[in-house]
Amino acid sequence: MPATPNRRQAKRHQTAQRLQQCALRLTLDKGYDGWTVDDLAEEAGVSRRTVFNYFDGKAEIVLGPPLYLDREQAEVFVAGGPTGNLLADALALAADMIAAHTTDEMFSASRNAILSDVVLIKLVHERFTAITDEFVDLMQQREGDAFNPARARLLTNLVVAIFDNAAERAEAQPDRPFSEHFHDAVIDARAVLS
């Protein structure tokens, strides 16, 4: 009897996670340029072809798929929601995006691998630049063309700084969910800015 789509999806998700965990271990042990996809396939006990059935390339294996904004949530944001406060809504949009793309287990290993390798730092910076451009565009759609793009970039950079602060907290206290660390970092940022 064939597996149900949910069962297949669960197995696919587990395999992708195993591949990413192995890639992160290899990166921490050997550096990003110190291993090949063949090394990963051997480490994970799969074929090279299997690796490429799950990921488009080495960067995606280590970092996961590129971040993207959910179109429905972006529409709510552009319409002035969910709260009506630009900062609160940008933070909510970022938190939802992060929750959809990472797990608490993968988060700490990913951050350590990224911070240990200059190539990964560059790749992450490129990804953040792309998502920043999307955030700026959404803010200008929401606030109107008169909204200063520099202000939109500042707000986006603030969201990224809060995210990074939450990541530091998660590394120090890995037993708490990342969402709680993010929430605490938001509270502290509001206190500092008030």
UniProtKB/TrEMBL annotation:
Keywords: DNA-binding, Transcription, Transcription regulation
One term of GO molecular function: DNA-binding transcription factor activity
InterPro entries given in the database record: Cro/C1-type_HTH, DNA-bd_HTH_TetR-type_CS, Homeodomain-like_sf, HTH-type_TetR-like_transc_reg, HTH_TetR
This protein's record includes keyword DNA-binding: yes
DNA-binding region(s) from the entry: 36-55
Record-linked Pfam families: TetR_N (PF00440)
Taxonomic superkingdom: Bacteria
Domain HTH tetR-type residue range list: 13-73
Protein name (Swiss-Prot/TrEMBL): TetR family transcriptional regulator
Organism whose genome encodes this protein: Nocardioides faecalis
Lineage of source species: Bacteria, Bacillati, Actinomycetota, Actinomycetes, Propionibacteriales
